[in-house]
Amino acid sequence: MSRIGIAVSGGPNPADIIDLVVLAESLGYESAWIAEGHGGDQFAVLAACATRTSRIRLGTSISSVFVRTAPTIAMAASTVADLSGGRFILGLGSSHKAQVGPEHGMVYSKPLTRTRETVAIVRELIREGRVSFQGETIRIENFDLSYTPRCRDIPVYLSAVFQKGIALCGEIGDGIILTRSTLRTAAQVRMHLAEGARAAGRAAAQIVVTSLLPTSVGDTRAAALAALRPGIAFYCGFFPRYNRMMAEHGFSTEAGAIADAWARGDREAAERAVSDEMIDATSVSGTPDQCRAQIEAYRRSGIDVPIISPFARGADAKRRFEAAIRACAPAAS
C-alpha cells in the first residue's frame, strides 16, 4: 500500500481531530501529524489519538523549540511514545520570528543552534533519564525523570526550508518535514541532506523525506483552487520565510505582490495575487482523481511520504477534512 500521511493544522476541534485520525487509520494512512499554532495542544491531542488507534504513526508537525523548554518537549514526547506503544515521531522546528516573539513573548535567536541543542537534550534525557547541558542557547544544570521511559529511541524529524536547515537535518535528523514542495524539491533536498550526512559520517539514504502538501478536493478544479487561495495568501504574506521560498520556486512576481498587499492590509488583493500556477506547483488540488495523480507524482519525485494537509475553516471543517481523507486514501488509489 502506498505511503501517505494526513496533517491537521487548524480547523477541526480536538475531539474532531481524533475522529479524523481514527478514520485515516481505517483507510490505510501511514501517519497522522498534528500542528499547534493557534489550535489545541498537539501532544494532548496525539495522546488521545494514541488511545483510539493501534497502527497509525503519530507525529508533531511541528513542535517549536522556542515555545516549550527542551525537558518539557522530552517529557511530552516520551508520554505520547509510551501511550502509543512506540508509534510517535517528534517533529521539531524553529517556527517563525513573526510568531515566537509577538505571540509567545520569547526571544527568537539562533534558530539552527537552538534546534540542534534541543535535539541533543531531548535524546539524552529520554535515553539516559537525566541531562546536564551547557550550550550556546540552552543551559540546564540538571534535570532527571522520575520514571523510566519504555521508548528510549524516538525518531526526530526536523522541519526545514533552506539549505542550512536541510543540512542540519542531514547531520542529526531521522527524517525531514518539508512544506509546500514542488516536484523539483526532493532532488535538491536530497543533495543538501547528503552534504550534512557526510559531515556527520551518516548515511543520507536512511533519512525519511516527507512533505506537508496543502490539499483541497473539489467537484471541479476551479473550486479546489479557490479553496486553497486564502491559505496560500496568508502563508506567503505573513511569513517572510515562506514568501522567499515561493519566490525561489519561481513565483517571485506573485510573492512580491502578495507581500505588498499583505503589508498594506489588503487581504483580498493578496488572494488575487495567488496564481493558479502557484497553487498547482505547491499543493494537491482538484477532483479526487486529479489529487491522487498529483500525490503519486510527488512520490515519483522523491518524497518518501507525501502528507496531505487540507485547508478548512469554519463549521464544516471536519466534513471537508473527511472528504479529503477519503478521496486521497491508499485504498482509493
Characterization of the model:
The chain has 333 residues and is α/β, with parallel strands linked by helices. The protein has helices at 14-26, 42-52, 70-83, 97-104, 111-128, 163-172, 185-200, 221-238, 240-248, 252-263, 267-272, 276-282, 288-301, 317-328; strands at 5-8, 31-34, 57-60, 63-64, 88-93, 130-134, 139-144, 156-159, 175-179, 208-217, 284-286, 305-310. The model has no long low-confidence stretch (mean pLDDT 95). 50% of the residues lie in helices and 18% in strands. Helix 2 (42-52) packs parallel to helix 3 (70-83), helix 3 (70-83) crosses helix 5 (111-128) and helix 6 packs across helix 7 (185-200).
List key phrases describing it:
333 residues, alpha/beta, TIM Barrel, 2 domains, 8-stranded parallel β-barrel, two-stranded antiparallel sheet, 14 helices
- CATH topology category name of the largest domain: TIM Barrel
**What class do helices, strands and sheet pairing give?**
alpha/beta
* Annotated CATH homologous superfamily of the largest domain: Luciferase-like domain
Outline type: globular
Which runs of at least 5 residues are low in confidence (pLDDT < 50)?
Answer: none
Q: Provide a count of the helices.
A: 14
Could you tell me the radius of gyration in angstroms?
19 Å
- The assigned CATH architecture of the largest domain is Alpha-Beta Barrel
What is the CATH C-level name of the largest domain? Alpha Beta
Strand neighbour order, sheet with most strands: 1-2-3-5-8-9-10-12
Measured by DSSP, the beta-strand proportion falls in 15-25%
Mean pLDDT: 95
For this entry, what is the oligomeric state of its chains?
single chain
Written as H for each helix and E for each strand, in order along the chain, the element string is EHEHEEHEHHEEEHEHEHHHHHEHEH
Number of strands: 12
Major sheet attributes: 8 strands, parallel, barrel
